[in-house]
Design a protein that fits this description.
Shape: elongated
Number of strands: 2
Structural class: mainly alpha
Number of helices: 9
Radius of gyration: 21 Å
Oligomer: single chain
Length: about 170
């Protein structure tokens, strides 16, 4: 049920993201550590296969660098483009959305993934907003799914003035 509510609002983009829905710095840090471990596992698996096939021998530093950066880029781009989540985000129950609450399109995700390679990008989380450059440049947010669900299920705010119209306005 909760996934249906989130999916419905993500596809329609009818609910802007508010700061209360943002993932915490702790969740973001956990995402980073879990994703780093996942990337390392993939890297070791790919390196083992390429080494066993004698495609890469460990002496060609340029080829190793291209492989490492390609796997990192593809990990984020594929996971976030398909699901809005990486393995880290699945574990912490967070996901990537655009400002209007909709799913990021493919170009948002490609840009977001590319921005992760900006030097010192990891330190950008120390800004007061807690958003990284890969978030701000791509105009995306990482939200806590449970907080987002609560916000989407909450009844709309009612303006008291709508309930009791001012009699002077009627005359």
């Amino acid at each position: 049920m909760a996934e249906h509510i989130l999916d419905e609002h993500l596809s329609s983009g009818n609910s802007h993201v508010t700061p209360e829905q943002f993932a915490t710095r702790g969740q973001r840090f956990a995402n980073y550590i879990i994703d780093l471990i996942a990337i390392l596992v993939i890297l070791f698996a790919v390196a083992f296969v390429l080494g066993a096939l004698r495609i890469i021998d460990g002496k060609n530093e340029a080829a190793i660098n291209v492989m490492v950066y390609s796997i990192m880029y593809l990990y984020y781009a594929i996971f976030e483009a398909l699901t809005g989540k990486t393995i880290g985000k699945i574990v912490t129950q967070t996901q990537v959305v655009k400002e209007d609450g909709s799913r990021p399109d493919f170009m948002n995700i490609l840009g977001r993934s590319l921005c992760r390679f900006i030097p010192f990008e990891h330190f950008s989380f120390f800004a007061s907003s807690g958003r990284g450059w890969h978030d701000t440049i791509s105009k995306t947010y990482v939200v806590d799914n449970s907080k987002r669900k609560e916000a989407l299920e909450a009844p709309p705010a009612i303006d008291v003035n709508d309930l009791f119209p001012d009699k002077e306005k009627e005359e």
